[in-house]
Amino acid sequence: MKIGILTFHRSINYGAVTQCYALATRLQKDFPEDTVEVIDYVPSWRVNAYKPTINFLCGNLRKRNGFVLNTKIVVKRMCELFTHPAHYMWLRTRYNAFLRSMKILPLSKTQYRQNDPEQFRQAVKGEYDLVIAGSDCVWEWTTIPLPSPYYLCGDFGALKASFAASAGTDDYNLLGAEQQEQLRNALRDFSYIGVRDTATEYNVRGLCPELTFVHNCDPTTFLDLSSLQEYQERVKDKMTAAGIDFEKPVVCIMGNEKLGKLVRDIFHDEVQLVGVYIPNTYCDVFLPDLEVPEWATIFGLCRLTITTFFHGTMLSLVNHTPVLSFDYLPETDLQHTKLHELYDRLGLSEFYERGKRSFNAEDTIRIGEKARRFLETPPTEKIVDALAKEAQHYDSLKDFIQSIHSQRAN
């Protein structure tokens, strides 16, 4: 059987690539007789959003539905260039590191560049026996307008499944009647629906109450770090070359300047701060050239992570590193953010913090006491147990694929 995975694998986003790698390698391991590929879907309206070109600096002019100038993004990115002259160079460095990272993925031999979802469907139709949409926020229609190729609308000549698909905090009630019907038709055509969070469950249940769906863990939950040991050695060498002394505690930061200042106010010079993905003036070292598998393992070289990112949180936990996650996303009583729900599900709410515009002295003392406790006595066993339990939510996909094999055998 030939299995195709359709996701955001070419986003300049560490989590997006890592979750894709984790799912593909797990399926290859569990079904060695099958061919597992990542469908190399590279429409310009998606890929150009990440290229460090004039187009990128102008807020990604090229959209699928025409040309739109996003003034806010233009101003923000121009200001970043003004305040950080080296900004463009590290954007190029990071972009090239992601291009090199593509070698870890089992990409399809054909690269699909069609901007129109219907043309893409026609091009890929019949190439696979099963197409899996996900994981990550592939079902966000505010990010990718409907009709979205990630809902697998129409006949693909294959069975359709989703794994850990997320619509973020999008709410189907805000869609028009025609768009809601598009989603209903798409969802009803899936043989297996796996979603990552209750916010997406809310949308599926509201649109199609008759459908059965299951919760899936994010694929990074079951990432096999043992296969990436050579990359951890490489990133350790990079950190050493940049001046990091591993005799002194290392704290990893994936977050904004407020968090950098908070951590510096807490620890002063007691720790070394390493920034990844985005620069932070409070860090001792910034590493813009990490390839994806290097990023996935760097958290294992740190004693603590401070982040605003979902997958920065996940990979810290997978590396058994304590993490303080600051959540700035809005939420409602019906739809919690992905970080909030993750920690509730894992039973690790002590790692969760609501983000603030600024942190006062009382905040600094409280968060500092927690950070020091995690640094000195990390709750490793609790993290390991929580991840093992969450990883079991992959099993329903495995059972589904096994049932396809059984039907074919009969």
What descriptors fit this protein?
six-stranded parallel sheet, 16% strand, alpha/beta, 410 residues
Description of the structure:
By secondary structure, the protein is an alpha/beta fold. The protein has 16 helices and 15 strands. A 7-stranded parallel β-sheet has the order 5-2-1-6-7-8-9. Strands 12-11-10-13-14-15 form a 6-stranded parallel β-sheet, sandwiched between helices. A two-stranded antiparallel ribbon has the order 3-4. β13, α12 and β14 form a beta-alpha-beta unit. α1 packs across α11 and α9 packs across α11. The longest helix is centred in the N-terminal third of the chain and has 17 residues. The radius of gyration is 21 Å and the shape is globular. The chain starts with a strand and ends with a helix.
Shape: globular
Low-confidence stretches: 61-68
Number of strands: 15
Sheet with the most strands, sense and barrel status: 7 strands, parallel
Task: For the largest sheet, list the strands in their spatial order.
Answer: 5-2-1-6-7-8-9
Which class do the helix and strand fractions yield? Answer: alpha/beta
Helix count, per DSSP? 16
> Cα distance, first to last residue?
15 Å
Strand content: 15-25%
| Average pLDDT over all residues | 91
Radius of gyration: 21 Å
Helix percentage range: 40-55%
